[in-house]
């Protein structure tokens, strides 16, 4: 286990962790908040993404709002806050402290929806919304999930009950809503997700990251956080070996738990962003997506998108809860199930994983 990351506000910069609590809904604080642009109510909104527009409210993601990369995040659990620091390339930095767990009884309840997956949320207090609005130069609000989660569409989770939500214009939700149970795992509680796109966890490897860097002729090193992972592993025999992983077992302090890897993560132009400027990168780094298009379109269900990383969920325990455990950088990870073929986004795979002896750290 090389790196662990969480993202308190969706699409802002990552927070590196040395330890993290595994829960069915992801790491604590991971993407429990999301910025929303408020378009004028009496006009015709001109959103950057129509699929993210609900009424006059537009979900802000780094794919369409690359300037989100200019916001750093850090967590102080002792104080119960996280700090957001705005770092414009040609201006002064400024910071804001936000409670990790705001008192929702004092906040306005709102309905939120991401990729056609709805949830109840809360509009953060005015001082927070005004601060972000001053950074962007237009009105925004910060939506907080509180104790709520969004339903996982279409049984992307191996533990979920079949979701019957209607489709949507979003490619993520239109495909995810058709996903069957991929593992045959025992059905227990339905796993919810936060404002992460589709799953509780995203797993990538250093070996695959090195392959991306090797494609840049100018010596550029790819920043792994552009792929927005939660867990970064090393020790694979070759790049993209994780394409076939069906399950990993993490052992920490003599305790073990499993993360079932159900689907591939299809990539978009967000990996081309320069995090220092909040704009599309120039040079080789600005062509990262194009370079992966050459040979990484390996998922027949997303044939126009290159694949990097695997979506995962905690496997349901056979007895009791047993689905929370603290893990740490340096923990041992075993690839405990391997698929005989690539998974296809939107289709099931006969879940006959085989045990492998591969051990990665």
From TrEMBL:
Pfam hit, one: MOSC_N
PROSITE patterns: MOSC
InterPro entries (alphabetical): MoCF_Sase_C, MOCOS_middle, Pyrv_Knase-like_insert_dom_sf
Chain ranges of the MOSC domain: 172-336
Gene Ontology MF: a single term: pyridoxal phosphate binding
Domain of life: Eukaryota
Protein name: MOSC domain-containing protein
Source organism (scientific name): Lepraria neglecta
């Amino acid at each position: 286990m090389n790196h662990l990351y969480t993202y308190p506000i969706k699409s802002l910069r990552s927070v590196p962790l040395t330890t993290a609590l595994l829960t069915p809904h992801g790491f604590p604080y991971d993407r429990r908040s999301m910025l929303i642009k408020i378009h004028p109510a009496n006009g015709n909104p001109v959103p950057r993404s129509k699929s993210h527009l609900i009424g006059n409210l537009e979900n802000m993601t780094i794919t369409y709002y690359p300037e989100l990369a200019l916001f750093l995040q850090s967590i102080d659990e002792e104080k119960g806050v996280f700090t957001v620091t705005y770092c414009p390339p040609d201006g002064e930095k400024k910071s804001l402290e936000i409670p990790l767990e705001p008192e929702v009884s004092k906040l306005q309840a709102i309905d939120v929806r991401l990729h056609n997956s709805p949830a109840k949320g809360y509009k953060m207090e005015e001082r927070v919304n005004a601060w972000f609005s001053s950074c962007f130069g237009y009105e925004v609000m910060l939506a907080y999930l509180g104790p709520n989660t969004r339903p996982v569409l279409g049984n992307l989770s191996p533990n979920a009950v079949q979701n019957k939500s209607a489709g949507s214009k979003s490619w993520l939700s239109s495909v995810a809503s058709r996903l069957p149970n991929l593992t045959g795992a025992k059905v227990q509680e339905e796993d919810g997700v936060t404002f992460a796109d589709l799953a509780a966890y995203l797993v990538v490897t250093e070996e695959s990251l090195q392959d991306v860097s090797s494609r840049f002729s100018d010596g550029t090193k790819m920043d792994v956080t552009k792929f927005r992972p939660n867990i970064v592993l090393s020790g694979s025999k070759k790049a993209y070996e994780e394409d076939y992983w069906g399950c990993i077992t993490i052992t920490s302090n003599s305790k073990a738990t499993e993360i079932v890897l159900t689907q591939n993560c299809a990539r978009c132009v967000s990996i081309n962003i320069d995090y220092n400027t909040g704009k599309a990168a120039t040079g080789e780094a600005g062509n990262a997506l194009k370079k992966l298009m050459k040979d990484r379109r390996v998922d027949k269900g997303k044939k126009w998108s290159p694949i990097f990383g695997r979506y995962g969920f905690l496997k349901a325990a056979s007895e009791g809860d047993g689905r929370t455990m603290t893990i740490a950088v340096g923990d041992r990870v075993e690839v405990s199930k391997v698929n005989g073929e690539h998974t296809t986004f939107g289709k099931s795979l006969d879940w006959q994983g085989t045990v492998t002896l591969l051990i990665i750290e």
